[in-house]
Amino acid sequence: MLVILGDPARSQNTLFEAGIAVGMGKRVIVITDPGGETPPPDLDGLLTIRARPDDLQAIAFALGQAEGRTVPDPVAAPAIGHPLGDTRVDELLALLKKGGPRERSVVRVLKTALEEAGTVTVERPVQDTHRRIDLGVWSDDLDAIALNPLLIEVKRTLSRDAVDQTLALLQGSPMHAALLVYLDPPPSQTDGHEALEVPLPVLAASLETLLERMRTSSFAEVVRDLRNQAVHGVSAAS
């Protein structure tokens, strides 16, 4: 069953019908406008896609990733990104501090930030026992720099192992590039460590840096800047 949230006047009837479908054991997929309200807690656990109902390309991407299929051919309207603003970034940083460094907490906050910034994201199911990507991201804004769709992997520390694992995940996916988001910076060169070089098509940024840049820039603009830095040989930084 496909549930589309948008018109407040129809939401209650829609949620009621969705509840009946869940009770009957049917699969329910929820589509909600990224600019609208957060879906109610009653829908937790269901596959939820934050995209405009007419954005068929973004929805097809999300469904394909959820089913482990490849990305379909382009078909329709764009998913356009925008900055989050100071207030929302401050709120998300506070949520990170409250949730601690646990991977799932970090992924949930990052997923929220990306969706509210206008991208379509798909999260690896918590119950999935097979190792898959943390997040798959779709945004038509990334097409201009040939990085759409984008794999996102969250790691505690930026290290050679983290980079190698991300490269391995990328090779086994239909994604064109990957963004490695880390919590702790790499060891400093002043401690006798060599600067860690992250090879394309993997980009790297700390979560704090990513959110701070999204105060005034869209996610695609941040990724474009990271790509430009990598092309010009700038080492990964916190």
The number of strands is 8
Distance between the termini: 44 Å
Strand content: 15-25%
Helix-strand category: alpha/beta
Mean pLDDT: 76
Poorly predicted regions are 69-78
What's the order of the H and E elements?
EHEEHHHEEEHEEHH
Shape, principal axes of CA atoms: globular
Q: Radius of gyration, Cα only, in angstroms?
A: 18 Å
| Architecture (CATH level 2) name of the domain at 80-231 | 3-Layer(aba) Sandwich
Spatially, the strands of the biggest sheet line up as: 4-5-6-7-8
CATH class of the domain at 80-231: Alpha Beta
The largest sheet, given as strand count, sense and whether it forms a barrel, is:
5 strands, mixed
Verbal overview:
With 238 residues, the protein is α/β, with parallel strands linked by helices. It has a domain at 80-231: Trna Endonuclease, Chain: A, domain 1 (3-Layer(aba) Sandwich), CATH 3.40.1350. The protein has 7 helices and 8 strands; from the N terminus they run E-H-E-E-H-H-H-E-E-E-H-E-E-H-H. The strands form 2 sheets. The chain has a 5-stranded mixed sheet, with helices on both faces. The protein has a 3-stranded parallel sheet with strand order 1-2-3. Helix 5 (160-171) links the parallel strand 6 and strand 7 (177-184). Helix 3 runs antiparallel to helix 4 (103-116). The longest helix has 16 residues, at 8-23. The protein is globular, with a radius of gyration of 18 Å. The N and C termini lie far apart (44 Å).
